[in-house]
Each structure stands twice: as structure tokens, then as C-alpha cells.
Amino acid sequence: MELIVNGIMQQKLLVLSIILIAISSLRTFFDMSGIVVVAHLIDVIDKMEGKRLEKYNVWPDVVSAFTHVYRYQAYSEETGGFFPKIKKDVSKFVERRNDDVIEWLKSLKNHNKKVFILTSSYVDFAKDICQQSLGNDWMTYFDIICTNARKPGFFNLNRPFLRLDENHEKEPVTELTSNTVYSQGNLNTLMKYLRDITGKDNPKICFFGDSLRSDVFPSKKFANWETVYLLEEMEIEGMKGIDPKPSTRVIELEDQQQEPNRKKRKLHELPSEEDTRILKSSKWGSFFCDESLPSKVESGQMKMRHMNTFWGYLIRKYADIAVPQLDYIADFPLDHQYEVFDHKDENKTGFYPGIPKSLDKV
What we know:
Oligomer: single chain
């Protein structure tokens, strides 16, 4: 019996390892094209061999190609095929954030909130993206900027912060200074800096990120920060009570909180039909709910259906709230209180401005 149990556990661990390797290797919009590359390589091999093989050894070649294309030096060298296209015309790939978001960032600083960027992008790429997105004054919106942070390792490893000179990494530093751009780093040094500039022993951090693996999970697990998950799948799958005007992709955001200092209603454009077709999988179904699994018994008091996917589990466990874009909450008062996810109480939902339609009980 013990051998059987051990064998089952080993199989489960093997499957989990394969899943984690796949998630780790092909996890962002940068490298998701690798999935297609791997599939094409297998097709090519099958055609050459005239049959389907039991085993394929294409992964080393894929890793080698990724190393060539996505290494951070490729942006400054304009090599590798990927970064040169972006560098030539950043505006083609990066949209300018609307004025509400920029005013929100300014408001945070005006209310003496300390604001920082923590990105795994290398400094030169990060600067160009931020400038296109937020304008020429973007650096003034932040107290400190941490680039090439190599998340999620930033949160549980002890790599030093590095001084930058003309976008080149230099010697390690142990003390951080405001209005400075750094490379790499670690949680402990950043928290010391935040304690020093806030004068608080335990400053409360609210962290915004679009990656469960690199942002939401590690910042909650290792730092216990409050987390806001930027989750575009909410727009792609649609949100309850948020419907576009007839024959358009435009929605009107309503003031559901009825707060006197809330701005007037505003218009927001949803992703195009083409973007929706690309990002909404007809094969895998909803990001939040797997219809093929047995339904969990739900009480009549439940606001939404049970999130039974792996990603839904992670959202409820490690995110406090989830929004499709910053635009949706940028005009909320800074002291607005949000209902947050509760891993033990599924009746508490942190989706804003509405739950995904795939979770609607109706």
C-alpha cells in the first residue's frame, strides 16, 4: 500500500513539476509565442520522420532562441528581432495612459503617499515604456524606481541593489536614495528604505501587478503586502452590469458607491473584437470557472459561482482585489474602502467594477 501511495505521489509531483516548468518558461506576452514555436518544431520533426515520436528534444533549442531574443542587452544592441521592433516605434505597441491614471498618480504624491516602481524590465526598456505610457514627466510621479528586479526572486532572495550609470549596472549599494533609479535588489533593503522615508516601523504597502506568479503571489506570501491584481480577462469575459452601448465597444462606468467626491461618470473603451477573439480561449474556456468539473453546492446567499480553476484559487488566496485596468478605480477617493477576497468566505468578492460574467449565478 505504501509503495502504491508513494508511486501516486511521485506521479503527481512529476506532473506538477512539468506544469511549473511550463508556467515559468512561457508565462507572459513576451514569451507566449514560444508555445507556437514548440508546436511548429514538433510538426516539422513529425514531417521529417514521417510519424509521431514518443519523445521530442526541442526544448534546449527553444531556450537557446529565447536567450538570444529576450536577453536584456538586446534592447540597447538592437539585436534579436524582438526588442528592435519595439524600440523603433514604442507608440505602436504601448498605449498612452489616460489622464485619470496620471492624475491619480499625482494625487498619491500630493497626499504624501510614497510611490515606487518595481519591474523586472531592464532600465532602458522600462524607461522607454514608462515615457510612452505616462509622458515625459513620468519619473516625477515616483519616489524610487527599481528595475531588473527579477521577480519573484526579489521577494525571497537577497540580491543587492546595484547603482546605475548611463543604464549600466555598477557596484552594489546598501542604502537607497529617493528620486533614483536602481537595478535588481531585494525586499529587505526596499522595506528599510520605505520605513525610513515614512517614519513608520511597519508601513502599509499596496502593490499593483499583472502577474500572479511574479507580483501577486510573492508580494502577499513573503511581504504580506495588500495586492491589487490587474486582470484583463475580466474585460475579455465581460463583467456583470458592465455592458457596452449598442453597436459599440464603449461602456459607461457608473458611480455605484454614490460618494459625493466621486467624479462624474466616464466612458471607457473595451478591448476590440479582434483582441477578444485572441485572448478568450474557445478551447480552454473561462479563466475563472471550469464547466467540465462537478459544480460545488452553493447556498442561495452566494453572490457568485465558485471559482474552481487553478487561477481562480490563486486569485482568491493571494489577491485582495482585482480590476481589469487602473482606469476603473483611478477616480475613487484615496480613502475608499473596497471589499476584498476572502479565501475562506466565497461570498466576499474583490472584483471591481463587477464580477466576471462567467461567475454570474444567473
